[in-house]
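Encode chain A's predicted structure.
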Amino acid sequence: MITEEIINQTYINRIISRDSAIIYKTQEQVVRANFHGTDRLARYLSSMPFDVDGTTHYFSILPYLRFLDIRYRQNMEVRRSLALYNRVIWGVLYNETLPDIRYGLTKDIRKEIRKDLERAIELEEYDKSW
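Encoded structure for chain A:
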C-alpha cells in the first residue's frame, strides 16, 4: 500500500539526490581547475559518496575542502573561483533543496509519484509471478 509517508520519502530522496550530485560535481570541477596534483580528491568527489539510510541522508564532505576554502579567504581573486565548501553547499541547500522540499510537493507531484510507485509495484509483482 502506498502511503503519504512513502510519497514524501520518495520525493525528498529525489530532491536530495539531485542536489547532492550538483554539490559534488561543482566541487570536482573546482578541484580539477584550480588544484593540480589532486587527482585522488577529484576522483573521490566524482564518485559522489552519498548514502541514504531510511530517512537519514549522509554527505561525505571532506574537512580538507573546508581547509582549502579557509586557506584562500584572504586572496579574493583566487577565492572567487573556489566554490568548494560554504558557497556551494549552503548555496545549493538553502536556495534549491529547502524551497523544493518545502513548497514543491504539490498535489500534482504526489499523483505522479503515486503512479510511479504503483507501476513499480506492479512490475515487481509481475516479475515474481515468473
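Helices lie at 4-34, 39-46, 63-71, 76-79, 86-103, 107-129.
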